[in-house]
Amino acid sequence: MKKPLVSIIVIVIVIVGVALIYYATRPPEVVPTIKIGVIGPMQYVQGIGHWNGATMAADEINAAGGIQVGEKKMNIELVQADSNEFINITDATNAMERLITNDKVDFIVGGFRTEAVLPMQDIAMENKKIFIGVGAAHNELCLRVAKDYDTYKYFFRGSPFNSSFLGRTSFIHLGTVAAIMKMTLNIPKIKVAIAAEKAMWTEPMIEAAEGVIPKMGMELVGVWRPSPIATDVTAELSAIQRSGAHIIFTVFSSSVGIPFARQAGELKIPAVQVGINVEAQKDGFSQATQEMGNYVATLNTYCRSVEYNELTKPFVDGYVERFGETPTYTADTYTAIKYALAPTIEKAGTLDADALVAILENASYMVPSGKVEYLKDAEGNHLHELRWGPGYLTSLGVQWQDGELKSFWPNKWKAVPEAPEVTYKGIVPYKIPPWVVDAYKQ
Amino acid sequence: MDLIRFYVRKLFTVLKNEVIVLPSRVVVVVFFLFLLLLPVFTNNQYTLRIFTLTCIFAILAASWDLLSGFTGQINFGHALFFGVGAYAAAMSNLHVHLPPWASIPLGGLVAVLAGLIIGIPCLRLRGTYLALTTLAFPIILMGFVFAFPDLTGGELGISGIERIARSRVTNYYIVAGLMFGLCTIMWKITDSNTGIIFHAIREDELAVRASGVNTTRYKLLAFCLSGFFAGIAGGLYAHFMRIAGPSTLEVSMSFLVVIWAVFGGVATIYGPVGAVFILFPLLEFLRFWQEYRTLMFACVLIVILLYMPDGLFPWLRDKIETECPRCKIRNIATRTVCRVCSASLE
Fold it and tell me: Which CATH number fits domain A164-300+395-440: 3.30.200.20, 3.40.50.2300, 3.50.50.100, 3.30.360.10?
């Protein structure tokens, strides 16, 4: 009688033991995730912006429980890829291929240098992966979508809007500042000097400026081309001063933006600076110019004190709190993930790229820098290009005022006479530097 | 059937008497088999991409060695040939609709022309002066690229070029096959009478001229040959990447070629090829340590060149093989007598 009992006890112990061992050593439950590749020059400020924006978006989405994909919730998993695209284009394409083939990402955001983004785009399209470009502004990236929709339909522009719109916005800033100068200082005809770094991307801007400035009723007094890495631009500034220019239209993306602003401040050149100066978009600009960069104005996407809409403040404040700096436009990977990909996936209930493209290209949604809608070309072909203009994306005109970056544009701006006025919350008036006022006040 | 049996027997004889006796030859055979069988073991697109690009850069590095290693005409602007080949292939494909099999050799021929254009004014220069002058040419061409953006695509380059083949495996086999073929041709050139004259020009040009050899013609020939192979590499690159941009002409590209060649061992052909097959995948492998990737790469280079100043592969070869002092035939280092003339190797 005892024997069967012992046997039963042994069997039970064995079964419980096996069950316990299985429970202790069972593979962890695999939580399904949506993998998003973040590609960019990660050793540079642009790539850091890409990664910071994406991290913030992923953390917010995951903290809220993830993305609803059909029946299940899925978290976001980010995969970082250093494209090294400023130095090596081949490296950038390898990084993209690795993201898709080895890391098996579902979507990609990022990219910066157009020459690198073009082959990166080819790789993503061959693999039918949705790639939201955040950084490169060249029109060609979206023209490809219209030219060969079936191949390139998976590409969308995330930020900034294209270079044509960037140029147009800069000229509006120039016109705005010129009008203020004319009115305040009673200058009959504003003289403009163009200061553009010696780089290929500035060529079309200069060509356009040479055509547009006279049409805007201003006089073009000359074009100066310092080296992108110049540390001394006093010769150019002296020549600009001698030309009698009231406004310097800057076209700088490189480090020359710092010495140019600093030395112009030191020499008290009687001309205001407006246009594009990427260095002036950064928080450290005032310190880098030893506070001589005060009153420099540039085009920018975000400014701490300005709200495009109710989404701006939470994003900018959250970013500043977390990373200690104002987001640049490459941090719009946040927008690409949180406002483009996540809602589209939830709406489609699938990760299938074709289904998502069909929804996203017709979507209209709010983002922290305005409202996104995708353009079509004249023949009605999808471009996946961002719409620019009042009510959509406009960017800002910002100016350094007493060591702080403030935004002066759009301030009661009308794109066309019949259009409604646009003024964002937090916009302040443009300030003319006191030494310029002293030089021209009659 | 007898013919097949004859060739199989001959193959075994060659393998037994000519290949297995020397470790360096065994390594070449293993390397060949590795490249041949790679797609059988993996169809990973990323791996195949890395090895396809490695093969393209191996042609480029070997072409620099042909000119600078063998003839001693130090070229710090080798990216010119590569860029010219890439742009010529891209333009002929995009504007004239030439298929890759025609546009790539055309790229090589246009690079030959570039070799002539550079070679003629550079013939009077030597050493540092020649090196610095050659460095200027890709920069000048980049100026032209930016000056005629309608033709060259300017800053963006020329994109939307036809692929060599649709499948990645086919691309790989075409490029790897070409790499083997072209590197063998380069090696054969250096082993021929022309190659001996190239060697001699590097060692003592005056003596060669005193022997009645027109060194000018041979130096120009070296520029053209090197240009042709580098141009082919450029054409392959353009069709593989589907873009030919200013980055193909960048100074960093020229220096990368010199680094590969010096790392592997100059005046060897196999040295630069081997170096590319180590360094290019190594840089990819180091992606796991992204922040220190370039630093680690530089450390590897410095350590190798510190302890192996003649390059990695000549150093390795000297460790595993010895040359017979009498008949100059190479033997495995473990042998005490020469395998051909039985002379003592100790």
Answer: 3.40.50.2300
